Amino acid sequence: MKTLLCLLIAIAVGATLQYEGLPHGLLLGSILSTALIASNLRFSPTLPLSLGYVQIVLGIATGLMFKSWDSQTATALLPSLGFLFVCLMAQISFAGLWLFKVSGWNAKDSLIAVYPGALAAVFDLLESERASSKVIVVHLVRLLSITVLVSFLIPGPVHLAFSESPALGLNTGLIALSLIVVCIVLGRVLLRIGVPAPFMLTAIIVTGVYIKFGYLQEFQMPQWSVDFATLILGVLIGAKFKDISLAELLRHGRAGVMSVGLMLLTAAAFAGIAARVLGSDPLTLWMAYMPGAIETITIVAFGGGLNVVFILTHHLVRMMALHFAPAVMVQARRWRQSEL
Questions:
Q1: What contacts 232, CB < 8 A, 6 or more positions away?
Q2: CA-CA distance, 118 to 305, in Å (whole number)?
Q3: Torsion on CA atoms 89, 91, 93, 96, rounded to nearest 10
Q4: CA within 13 Å, CB half, 90
Q5: Residue 135's closest CA among 248, 52, 239?
Q6: Phi/psi at 173 (nearest 5 deg)?
Q7: What's the pLDDT score for residue 265?
Q8: Cα-Cα-Cα-Cα dihedral of 209, 211, 212, 215, to 10°?
Q9: Helix, strand or coil for residue 284?
C-alpha cells in the first residue's frame, strides 16, 4: 500500500512538472517526491523487476534505432571511442586525486568513489562487502548531478521521437514476445557474472540483430511504455536516499560535488577537443563521455531528440570495458578459490 501511494505521488508530482513545462519534469518530479518520502519516512518502495523493465524498454527502443546502422557509421565512431578511453582515464585520475590529496580519503575509497559506472562488480573485485557512507554519497551526487544537469541542458521531450506503433498483428506480437524472452534469458546470464545493466545491454544488441534480419521493421515502442520507464527510473533513484541521512549528505556532499564536477568538466573538455578534431556536435559528444548513469542519459537523449545510437554506443563500450573485465576477474578468483 505504501509503495502504491509513493508511486501515485510520484506520478502526480512528475505529471505536474511536465505539464508546467519543466524539461523532463516526469523524471525530475518522481526523483524529488520519492527522495523526500524515502529520506523522511525511511521507506523504500518495493518494485520487484522494475529495473529490468526499465532496461528492457530503453534497450529495445534504442535497438530499434539501429535500422539506419551500417559499417560506415560504425567506422565513424572509432576515433571518438579513442577519445572516450583517454577521457575515462583522465576523469578517474583527476577526481580520484582530488579525493585522495585534497579531501584526505584513503586510496581504495577514492578509487571506488570515482569509478564511472555501477558499483557491484568493483565492490566484489575489491572484496568490499559494504561501501562506506561517503562513497555512496559521492555516487548519489554523481547520479543526481548528471540527471539534473542534462535534464536542464537538453530540451524537453520531442513527441515525434516516438510515433505511435500500428496495431500489432499476431506475427509481430509473437516476434516482439520472443525478443523480450531472449533479452530476459541472456540478461540473467550476464547478471550472474556481475555485469551491470545486463538487460539493457542484451535488449540493445538482440533488438539490433532482429532488425538486421528484417524483423520488427515497422514496430515502435509505445510512448506510454517509455513514460512509465521514466517514472520508475525516477522512483528508483529517489529511493536510494533512504539510507543516507541529511548529516551524511552535508558532511560528504562537498567532496562529492567537487569530484563529480571534475569528472563532468573533464568530459566537457574532451568533448570540445573531439568536436574540433572530428567535426561532431560537442553536446552529443559530452553526453557520450558522461561518467555513467546510462539509463538517465538514455531517457534524456530520447526526449531531446539527440543521436541516441551514437551516445549509447559509447556508453555500452564504456560498460564493457569497465564492467566486463572486473566481473570476469571476480569469477576467475572465485573459481580459483573453489579449486583450493
A1: 47, 50, 51, 53, 54
A2: 26
A3: -140
A4: 18
A5: 248
A6: -60, -40
A7: 95
A8: 110
A9: helix
Helices (H), 246-320: 246-278, 282-288, 294-304, 308-319
Q: What does pTM read for this prediction?
A: 0.73
Q: Which amino acid is at 90?
A: A
Mean per-residue pLDDT for 13-30?
A: 84
* Beta-carbon count within 10 A of 115 CB: 25
Count the Cβ atoms, other than its own, within 10 Å of residue 250.
10
Q: In a 3-state reduction of DSSP, which class is residue 158?
A: coil
List, for residues 110-128, the tens digit of each pLDDT value: 888 888 865 555 555 444 4
Highest mean predicted confidence (pLDDT) among 24-28, 111-115, 179-183 = 179-183
At 257-266, the pLDDT tens digits run: 999 999 999 9
Question: Which residue type sits at 242?
Answer: K
Question: Cα–Cα–Cα angle for 120, 192, 300, nearest 5°?
Answer: 55
Q: Are the C-beta atoms of 90 and 62 separated by less than 8 Å?
A: no
